[in-house]
Design goal:
Number of strands: 0
Helix content: 40-55%
Shape: globular
Length: 70
């Protein structure tokens, strides 16, 4: 998937502290009740409910935070 590949369409890592600030901002935007976007299709799971998106996002972010010992 290009959106998940840092060499194709993903976001290459730049500076860890700055990347973490951007991640926190994205999480806040994603979880805000007054969203400025609509949930689209997940690249692997297709259509998902809001609850499913939130559950998937929690598990996904938790996995990566644990991966980096955060």
């Amino acid at each position: 998937m290009p959106e998940a590949d840092q060499q194709l369409g993903g976001t290459p890592p730049i500076e860890f502290a700055s990347d973490m600030q951007n991640l926190v901002a994205m999480i806040q935007r994603f979880t805000n009740q007054n969203r400025d976007f609509k949930f689209g299709l997940h690249p692997l799971f297709a259509a998902m409910s809001e609850w499913e998106w939130m559950r998937w996002a929690y598990l996904h972010v938790d996995h990566h935070l644990r991966q980096f010992g955060l």
